Amino acid sequence: MEKFYPNLDIKSLASCPLCNNHYSSREIKILSKKDESVILYFNCSRCKNAVISVISAGVFGITAVSMVTDLSAAEAEKAKNEKAVSADDVLMIYKFFSEKGKSIVERQKSK
Ligand SMILES: [Zn+2]
Fold it and tell me: What's the CA gap between 35 and 31, in Å, rounded?
């Protein structure tokens, strides 16, 4: 496979999904750049919304996943270094809300 260069023509392809403004280079920040993937932060100067995109190259070609965010570039930069959510974390949250849910129902019944 041909080597992937994440900064290849991304600027000309990128426009805001919310207002279609074409991003200038000042509105794009590279949060992370590894061998075959790059995480970009787009901050639209027109509508003031921000988007994080993960662009990567794999056996099926180049894929891009984007999401609108309310994180600042600094917060996004910090968040990418956080530990991933594990299955145990999800189970702990599920158990917490299951128990809280029961106690709320029981409290309502006793009224
Ligand atoms: Zn916009």
Answer: 14
